[in-house]
């Protein structure tokens, strides 16, 4: 596109992650003219598959797991020619603590229950760790809870707004862990499927730097000095990424307090491939439930899980989240591998270092994707920021997994958020026409 030449559309969508692609699909079905501006050279956002040259092995570098209750993702997986496959070990399994090796029983709803039990106290501006320190006297239980929270959010508990995390967790409506199934093939197939529906609309390597509200809609300028004008605008990027964009004064006044309420997570994901599932075999011999996961209470934000697909390769995935991920960001890969290997060995023994392959992916401090599974409202942030951002202001709205009314921080949340934003924006545009 030539400099200073402006293209006109009904809707501009910023970001080609799952939220942006879902919103684009909805606009396509509505017959709207639209463009999707993607800052990088690929679609999918935090959905990114690495497939070997001979297609014999693939790794999910980012998002990976679904449940049968995540109906929109299940539908997309099937449309992309795949089926759901059960994650090994999610039935008849146990999650253990790193130190005691004793089983622990935690899920998202334990955090909600813990906060719900603290009745009558206003903690909207208090960090999660202070709330836990005050109300959970048992140090061991407190450490496990803090590490579990940091592992699930990829943000250390000292930075998390307690009221906001209670709200977020209440929106995770699955009755399972949400990790019990995977697609039978690379999730990049889902991205390719969505791309095929919008192939002529996606413009790659067009990072948005400025958004200006005009009398007839919005003018968006990219780093390449391309200009686009739309009657409506969907910002389908994480709130932290949107916060780095310059908005015209009225938009900035409205949105800035809510965008600035978020902090990025950070996570390093390392998947190890083994010939034998020794962590299951030893459990069978000992007549115990198979070890499915480990919460490292001594390393806040670090957790391990059996990520094998039933009937597939034997795999363990270690997630290094929060401050530890940031600390390891700039060290050589060998140092990260050593740290991960030590965590495996300390719980599972020497067999854990006999892996035949591994893959590492890092999600820290990205200007476009954010850091961890999603941005989190920090303890100085506004607890209702997600509610404001997901509703249209004039004919502009935000969409991302953080804002989803259901399944936030999951792929399902991203898809639902994109669909919701498109629906609400179409309603808003219709109202503006009739006024």
Supply the CATH architecture of the largest domain: Alpha-Beta Complex
Number of E-type strands = 22
Biggest β-sheet description:
8 strands, mixed
CA(first)-CA(last) distance: 35 Å
SS strand fraction: 15-25%
The total of helices stands at: 14
Mean pLDDT: 89
Number of domains: 2
GO molecular function: oxidoreductase activity
Pfam family, one: Amino_oxidase
InterPro entries: Amino_oxidase, FAD/NAD-bd_sf, Flavin_amine_oxidase, Flavin_MAO
Keywords: Oxidoreductase
Please explain how this structure is put together.
This protein has helices at residues 18-30, 71-79, 108-116, 128-135, 139-153, 162-170, 188-197, 239-242, 249-259, 278-285, 323-327, 333-348, 385-389, 411-434, and strands spanning 6-14, 34-37, 49-51, 58-60, 65-66, 84-86, 93-97, 103-104, 181-183, 202-203, 208-214, 217-222, 227-235, 246-247, 262-263, 266-274, 290-295, 302-306, 314-321, 357-364, 376-377, 396-398. Helix 1 runs parallel beside helix 7 (188-197) and helix 3 (108-116) packs across helix 6. The strands form five sheets. Strands 1, 2, 10, 11, 12, 13, 14 and 22 form an eight-stranded mixed sheet that branches. Strands 8-7-17-18-19-16-20 form a seven-stranded mixed sheet, with helices on both faces. Strands 5-9-6 form a three-stranded antiparallel sheet. The chain folds into two domains: 6-45 and 184-263 and 376-434, FAD/NAD(P)-binding domain (3-Layer(bba) Sandwich), CATH 3.50.50.60; 91-175 and 265-364, Alpha-Beta Complex (Polyamine Oxidase, Chain A, domain 2). The protein contains 14 helices and 22 strands. It is α/β, with parallel strands linked by helices and 435 residues long.
